[in-house]
Amino acid sequence: MSALARVEVVAAFWRKARGGEVGPGDAVTLARVFEFDLWGGSVRPPRFATVPATTRVLDEAARLVPAHGLRAYDAVQLASAVTARAVDPEVRDFACFDAILRHAASATGFTVIPP
């Protein structure tokens, strides 16, 4: 995932808290669990690999926006996956729930999860 997700995911938790969908304590817990998954700890390694937002990734994201009608952060996420796959062809899965991003990831050759 893009290293930018560190901010994007935590912002989403707090947006849910501001909207009353989760309580502030839940937002704190969700953010802490996400950070633990992101960085790992003494008892387990990180659950995610992050891709820096390099010029290469941003150039790919800019190409993906008009090709698939993506929002900026969605394009950066998909471009990060494309960049990771260029380094490691075993990168085949793309996890998301947004319908437009799911379609773009599938069209780009990823297996979208959940199915």
Q: Which bin fits the share of residues in helices?
A: 55-70%
Overall pLDDT, averaged?
A: 96
Q: H/E element string?
A: HHHHEHE
Number of helices: 5
Largest sheet: number of strands, sense, barrel closure:
2 strands, parallel
Radius of gyration: 15 Å
CA distance, first residue to last residue = 18 Å
How would you classify the helix and strand content by structural class? mainly alpha
Order of strands, main sheet, comes to 1-2
Q: How many E strands?
A: 2
The percentage of residues in β strands lies in 5-15%
Q: What general form does the structure show?
A: globular
How many structurally independent domains?
A: 2
- Which ranges are low-confidence, i.e. pLDDT below 50, for 5 or more consecutive residues? none
Fill in the keyword field for this structure:
mainly alpha; two-stranded parallel sheet; 115 residues; 2 strands; 2 domains
